[in-house]
Amino acid sequence: MKICSLYGVGFYYIPGTDMCIKIGGYVRFEAAYNVNGSSTRVTSGDVNNRSTNDLWYRVRGYITADARNQTEYGTVRGYIALGISTDTTADPPQTFNANRAFIQWAGFTFGRAQSFFDFYSQAAVGYLGFAPNSDTGDGGWEVLAYTAQFGNGFSGSLSLEARRTTQIVGQGTFSTPGSADSGSINGASQFGTALGYGGWKAPDIVANLRVDQAWGSASIAGALHQVNANYYRNSQLELSGHPADEWGFAIMAGLRLNTPMIGQGDYLQLQGIYTQGALRYLFQNPNNNWWYQHGAGVAYGVLSDGVYGGSAPSLNGTDVELTTAWGLNASYEHFWNPRWRTSLYGGYADVSYNGQANAILCVLQGFGSGVGTAAVARPGCSNDWTSWWIGSRTQWNVTKDFYLGLDVAYQKLNGMNTPTGVIPAAAIPTSTIATAGTKVTSDEDNWMVRFRVHRDFYP
What we know:
The protein has 2 helices and 26 strands. By secondary structure, the protein is mainly β.
């Protein structure tokens, strides 16, 4: 095959065509401890008892293909990455996986790529996937986008993307704590019930402005997300009506600063995100209600885009009360030499509910009375919660395409508060059903570690 030098190292002409292609891929082994048997959902029903999977293995293998050729409007590129991902807690253990499949041409991107909201890369500085951030880089995201290059490293993008949802919690006429009509607050069906999200009606609208220069990068981005609840109650759906659609939003500011004066290759990453009603732009992974348990002590947090309740618009029906959240991420990576590097990372996340939303959640949890606009929470019931974390990863690059590394992290969760100091059965996620007995509110923490061996076929 003839070498193609138009697009960089590793490309060859497909015989008989003007198209160039590069074949690559990687193989990876990972082992983790104290991660609740998951790569990302460490905080989902983490009960820390005899039923918990403390040890976790995963093996991944990907093949990539990058094909390019010229048109009168510039380069057209097609890219795909597919393979298998095994997980010791999955059934079946081997799963086909494809995280990239896109076409780029004349500034457009179509397909499964990465969200144009993203900036901060947790995967660049750590292996553990528990830290809240917006990064879709590992799994990919469906986009239809246009990027304009303004020169001197400045660019802007507008993207219509698959919607990012957590859950909408609804309280209907017949809602009782823990029932199927409770809008899945207990985690039984987190991503949509008759009292949760309605069908997908509009894409998320994402825009960014960024600059990439020798000193580093900076970006600001925003997203609009339609929060469209289903009906007010499970029975007689259409007759009960529904809340008006709301538009949630998220805004992001990020900075990457190269610091060669400290070490060749060193850099600092910073990112801040604020959102109302679009919490998956902060909690892409993990995207679930949070539950840390040690013995009878539990830290619990409801993760939702909005809360509503009532029987009909004229019968105590509320609007969708959007949830507010904000978060910070920071990291620094230092290169001791070309083969050894160490990162330090950390962050903070805060989730809060307004008075109406908190009242509805408290009623569903058994700490209040009334439906919709008439819902009243007992004093001392608060569903606001926060989390913070810190971690460090050290990596040894044995060669330029083969490395080993270890990531160690600590996380603290300050969960909801109840008037009695007890979390009722109605609030317990179904994933913790094996842990019968009284649960009391407390602030909980967790240490976790993850080891990785990685081999690239081609950089």
